[in-house]
Design a protein that fits this description.
Length: about 280
């Protein structure tokens, strides 16, 4: 059976009884659920999903903590839904969430950084944000970056082919559609709805969130299948990473390190992908 991919957030929460019923129905229909949850263990949406999982006593639900901005999380879920239509099993899809998040470059163009707490903000930037008309370029993933937006003030971008998604209002998008898109060699600009929790995440409603992402499902499949797979000794699922994210079983130490894939750069060369991040222990 195929897997269903979902994102947990406060604005998506149903009454608990309804959520248990809908989750049970999804398990009956699809077999497994991969839920992308906030990275904070105390987050209400994540705790709620653990409650539902416990109520159903279901080891067929993988709750994967993801510390990405809202737009990047939405696009990651989209990528996993694409891969769910291939021959990849649920254990591999759950591990792929962590793997593919590494290839997302996500930030925002903000009208103010006065309430921003996701990246370090200097006193000078706080003062500048009090001056009307100033916009700030912020990168939250994969490395934090903050500077006043300008044609020569550009955060480091991906070294491989991506598309650029953007969402939001309240500031002029010209810096994103012009200098940033050119510097990042974006193949396509895509406007999408702003996620409901973006303003809270970035600390302001005057923002345009942006994310560079791999849109080609063939390239995503190549990335995931280039990583070594193991079989979980408890539940029998095929997995990638150091742990089965469904039953929580740790995978033994490997004698040989996995080979890292190469992502086509688009101009006659290949760029080696970064080292795969370690998966944190599954929390029941």
């Amino acid at each position: 059976m195929p897997s269903v991919i979902t994102v947990t957030a406060d604005d998506l929460a149903l009454p608990l009884e309804d959520q248990v019923i809908s989750t049970s129905a999804a398990l009956d229909t699809h077999g497994h659920i991969v839920a992308l949850a906030p990275a904070d263990p105390a987050d209400p949406a994540r705790r709620r999903m653990h409650t539902v999982r416990s109520a159903l006593e279901a080891d067929r639900i993988a709750i994967v903590p993801i510390g990405l901005p809202p737009l990047a999380t939405t696009l990651l879920a989209e990528q996993l839904r694409q891969l769910a239509g291939t021959d990849l099993g649920p254990g591999v899809l759950a591990g792929a969430a962590r793997l593919l998040s590494y290839y997302l470059h996500s930030g925002a163009l903000l009208g103010s950084v006065a309430k921003l707490d996701r990246v370090p903000v200097s006193v000078g930037s706080h003062v500048k944000s009090l001056v009307p008309g100033r916009n700030f370029a912020v990168l939250a993933h994969p490395e934090p970056y903050l500077a006043e937006a300008g044609p020569d003030q550009l955060p480091p971008g991906p070294g491989y082919q991506t598309q650029l998604a953007m969402a939001g209002t309240g500031v002029d998008p010209g810096w994103i559609t012009g200098p940033l898109a050119a510097a990042w060699h974006a193949q396509h600009l895509r406007e999408v709805p702003l996620p409901a929790d973006s303003a809270k995440w970035w600390g302001t409603s005057r923002l345009i969130e942006f994310t560079a992402y791999i849109a080609d499902v063939g390239m995503l499949y190549q990335l995931v299948t280039s990583v070594r797979r193991d079989t979980c000794t408890w539940c029998g699922l095929e997995v990638i990473g150091d742990q089965c994210l469904f039953c929580g079983t740790r995978i033994g130490e490997r004698a040989n390190p996995p080979k890292h894939a190469a992502v086509p750069a688009g101009r006659g060369r290949a760029v080696e992908t970064p080292r795969r991040p370690q998966l944190e222990p599954h929390k029941r």
